[in-house]
């Protein structure tokens, strides 16, 4: 097993300890554990269902109700009943611009900040809401096992970015769970199917996941126990809800009802929607559906006609994913079906047709992700063996850029081994040296993060600012050793440093750094915005002066004077340290200089062309 970098708990986990696996879904969530070598999902008290609707209701006294009971309250108290909180994780109001009107509840508009949901006079973050669902799952399993649980593995979609993963981890922490790993849903599903064992020949797997309101396709390559996501694609508004809707529309068309009636009578609309979902589920195993009062019917044949275009959309997305992965269909060894909506026979048929092989649905499609999470948890607990234990970077790694900003190169939770690079340039004409300082942590300013080392890339040949192309590359090998390499591409000047000391960080220290990064997030964001504006302004001032010098021939005296004045204004604004003033001064300067720059460019092109003609 690879040496465990920095913090990893896995070595410290006690053998008998129970670590749970959680599928925190948009529509439904589940909890699972491995018992006697087999993953099992934990059912409700009544032993009926393992799925917990991912819905949180706050009643008038602010009592919190989660799951099936909350779902029942969705039609009567939409403004107090929050569903799909997962869609809001790690998002700002701006990110959700097109989406907020679709929700039944209120979202707070605070630019730049992470979204909050307003219920009565209270505000709830998506992290809080997810934490309520996690608490519910934790309580459920504690009751069944009759012991306290404190550690978990939680799954997230493969496309989740670092902010969304971090939000998920924080939700776990709030629910009283130490989140040992965040793993990708398709990876979990593949684990549940037993793929990814050590020493297995390499294999390419397509994981087709059609849930309640989202569709994801991921193409994974499993090689010697390492899961590589070759491509991922999807639609965050395509899923089971769409099938319910086509049935609803079909019934409305057939009856005397109008869309207008449904808009005015919300509870009628809700009850027809529920009937439609029942019909859909019924038709997965039967040929005809009729509502109890016999007012609505639909046959399997009719339903297939209506749902075909929806499934076709998912197939088109699969095509893109296969293309992005740079594969031929014949390169794909396995197709597995995940998500409740893949229970529809039409889905299985169309997916199998497209991939040219029978899609695998041997395991319960709405339980596989939770089962995979439980298997990963059991691997961490040291029970399940035969799989490689993948390590991840627990904190982000990056370098200092202008103004003391942290520029992340390898985000936290990246798989180890891992490598990533980014290009930089110089900020001063003729700069011959570049200091590369390496930091670890989540804060926006390096001064709050932990310094791991630094080196100087020297002998950069003199070039104007912005021309050198300096690539900084981070490589973490399987033993968790970080190598940082910087290279000036035009001259191939190169320097490298190996850092091993980063692994001295203690669990407490890491916890504190994470808590700090949350606590200071707002202040950091402001400081970062100011620094970014200042940096941008400085480079504009620099190019402004250069522009005047280079274009004396085409600028009138007034234009030059005005440019100098505006550049001075901008310099003052930078000294003033007010982001808005800097941005305003930049805008004024920009508006004034844009036509001049265009004129200069045309002039220079003409010069160049005529010069070329002469030369020929
Ligand atoms: P998510 O991953 O988005 O949380 P799930 O994987 O639990 O969601 O899928 C929920 C969706 O699956 C719902 O739209 C539900 O109606 C649908 N579903 C569940 N069972 C069936 C079935 N037998 N036939 C068709 N759709 C089903
Ligand atoms: Mg799911």
Describe the structure.
The chain has 616 residues and is an alpha+beta fold. The protein folds into 4 domains: 305 residues, Nucleotidyltransferase, domain 5; 67 residues, Actin, Chain A, domain 4 (Alpha-Beta Complex), CATH 3.90.640; 115 residues, Substrate Binding Domain Of DNAk, Chain A, domain 1 (Sandwich), CATH 2.60.34.10; 89 residues, Substrate Binding Domain Of Dnak, Chain:A, Domain 2, CATH 1.20.1270. Helix content is 38%, strand content 24%. It contains 14 helices and 28 strands. Strands 1, 2, 3, 4, 11 and 12 form a 6-stranded mixed sheet that branches. Strands 15-14-13-18 form a 4-stranded mixed sheet, with helices on both faces. Strands 21-20-24-25 form a 4-stranded antiparallel sheet. Helix 4 packs across helix 10. The N terminus and C terminus are likely disordered. Bound molecules: adenosine-5'-diphosphate (ADP) and magnesium ion. The site of adenosine-5'-diphosphate has 20 residues, from helix 7.
What are the salient characteristics of this protein?
alpha+beta, Nucleotidyltransferase, domain 5, Actin, Chain A, domain 4, 4 domains, six-stranded mixed beta sheet, four-stranded mixed beta sheet, 14 helices, globular, disordered N terminus, binds magnesium ion
Outline the secondary-structure elements.
Layout: E1 20-24, E2 28-35, E3 38-41, E4 52-53, E5 55-58, E6 64-66, H1 68-72, E7 81-83, E8 106-107, E9 117-119, E10 122-124, H2 126-145, E11 151-156, H3 162-174, E12 178-184, H4 185-192, E13 203-210, E14 215-223, E15 226-235, H5 240-254, H6 259-264, H7 266-283, E16 288-290, E17 297-299, H8 300-324, E18 334-338, H9 345-355, H10 368-380, E19 391-392, E20 397-401, E21 405-410, E22 415-416, E23 418-424, E24 434-440, E25 450-457, E26 470-476, E27 482-488, E28 493-499, H11 507-519, H12 521-550, H13 557-576, H14 579-615
Parallel strand pairs: 1-11, 11-12, 13-18
Antiparallel strand pairs: 1-2, 2-3, 2-4, 5-6, 5-7, 8-9, 9-10, 13-14, 14-15, 16-17, 19-22, 20-21, 20-24, 23-26, 24-25, 26-27, 27-28
Helix pairs in contact: 2-3, 4-10, 5-7, 5-8, 8-9, 12-13, 12-14, 13-14
The structure holds adenosine-5'-diphosphate and magnesium ion.
